[in-house]
Structure formats: structure tokens, C-alpha cells
Amino acid sequence: HLLDFTEWSVDELMALLDTAEVMAQVLTRTIKKVPALQGFTVASLFFEDSTRTRLSFERAARAQSADVLTFSAGGSSLKKGESMRDTLRTIDQLQVDLYVVRHSSAGAPHQISRWTDAAVVNAGDGRHAHPTQALLDAYTFRAARREATGASLPGAEAFAGQRLAIVGDIGHSRVARSNIELFTALGAEVVLCGPPTLVPPELRSRHGVSVTTRLDEAVEGAAAVMALRMQKERMVTGLLPSITEYVARYQLTERVMRQAGPGAVVMHPGPMNRDVEIASPLADGP
Ligand code: CP
Predict the structure, then answer these.
(1) What's the Rg (C-alpha) of the chain?
(2) For a disulfide at 66, which of 61, 182, 205, 253, Cβ 3.0-4.6 Å?
């Protein structure tokens, strides 16, 4: 399973990034397919909306010759009252080898892993974890560091002592939690920045993590700056005075990025609220 990073060593995480690099080469060929998963069945179980994660998993599974089943809660018998466990029992009869699970409740992929013999990959559960998004961000970060330095940076060298600034709605973000876990494990420093109401106290005391409410301080010398979406669907009212004030203090812009380190990369996991947490010229820029 890949549910979160608690049982993964740095060597195993680096092996995942290195394998992804090899697989990415496949997508540059005329025939974008290898037989690595021939005979296996991958099912995407999405109990919560998604564009990027669901489609990229399905694309990846097909590129490795797996058979793919797609389940979305919206059009399913959950609407008729079927429980999640019975839904899983039904799909399990179709001989699935790997489930890719997204759910709005933290822990749902862990629960599913106890109900099936198949492997489970967490594609985002509540505010808890989004490990494959963090792996993708680490992959992007390493590629950007290589480009900025011209060095090959094997192993965890690309991360050691580097700073990742994460800006925005950290409290509601599983992406922030998984990136904190992954980047600090790889030796990077993570700076969290946002209004105090959106930065939860339990993240402030973690090893390798610091917190600031000042955007210029967070971005100063950073190798990467990640903007996070305002998660209005998870937000209770009263956490922000107004969006206008948020934009004035925390929006990532080209001007703000001038304070970042040389070759710094801008990241956003998507979906974006354009011109809220990130200005369009920056989002659309190089
Ligand atoms: N980054 C991400 O998880 O996007 P989706 O919600 O579209 O899958």
C-alpha cells in the first residue's frame, strides 16, 4: 500500500522518484506503452471529485498495459444506499489488483486496505494525506534543482538544506501535510505561511518546519514556493476577514517571486482559484 509516508524509508522514496523518471521516458516515445502491468487490473475508486489525480492514474495504468476500471461515487449505487463496504465487495469480485482511492474522510483508504487483499494507493483522504501529489511535487522540485544548478543531484542531494515555502490554506490541506512529511524526510526545510487561522498549531512544532505570517519572509531564498487553494468546501466561516485582504497579503505574484532563490520554481497542486492564491501572470508564466 501507499497510504501515507509513515512506513517508507528515504531509500524507498528515492527509488519511487527514480522509477518515475524512467517511466516518464516512456511517454516521450512513439508508442507510449510498456507491459509492466500487463494482466493486472487497476480500479480508481473516487468518492470525491477529481480531475488531475483520477485521470493521471488512469493514464499511467494504461501506459503500463493494466486493465482499468473507473468508479465515481456520483453515478454509482452509493446513491441508492449501498454502503462503501458493499460497494468494495462488489468491485472486489471483478478481481482488482490495485485500488486508487480518494475520499473526503480521513482514513477511508486505510479502512479499505483492511477490507481487501488488493493493494491500495491513497489518492487523497480528507485533510489527512495526498502522498502521490507530494511525490509528484518532489519529482518536480528535483527536476527544477537540476536545471537551476546543472548538477545531477542523485539521492536526496537535491533536497538537503533547501527551502520549500507553502503558502495559503494549510489547515484544510492534505497536500501540505504530505509535502511536510516528504520534504522534511528528504532533508529539506519547510516554511508554512498564511493567516494564523489557516495554519494549525500541531504543524508548528514539527521537526524541519517553521511558520511565518509574512509572505516576504517565507519566500526569501526559497528553492520552491507552493500556493495552496482556498478550500471553501471544507472551510467554516470566520477564518478570514475577507478574500480581498487575503489577496493583498498572501497572493503569489511575479513580484513576490523575485525574492525567492535563484531558479526557484512555483508550484500549485491544482485546482487553482485564479487571482486568489496565485496571480494569473505568474500561473501562466514560465
Ligand atoms: N491535485 C489534485 O489532487 O487535483 P484533483 O483534485 O483534480 O485530483
Answers:
(1) 19
(2) 61
